[in-house]
Amino acid sequence: MTDRMAIDLPLMTPPLKRSVTIDGHRTSVSLEEAFWRGVADAAKSRGLTRAQLIGQIDHARPPEVGLATALRLFVIAELAPR
């Protein structure tokens, strides 16, 4: 039997769907709460609303990458040491 160290996991939630308006068009995005918090924190640190930051990410992402994926990758990149 292998001795495993206990791991502390963050609070895990199923994806939460929220509506956002990008360029005057409503869309909905499903993200886990931790990612929604990451987007909100990043927007606040930039002096933007969450919708404004999501719009910027939407415009910058390649068309083959979904918006939810782009948001998750953005939050991970924000947390990475520089």
From TrEMBL:
Ranges where the Ribbon-helix-helix domain occurs: 16-78
InterPro entries: RHH_dom, RHH_sf
Domain of life of the native organism: Bacteria
Protein name as it appears in the record: Ribbon-helix-helix domain-containing protein
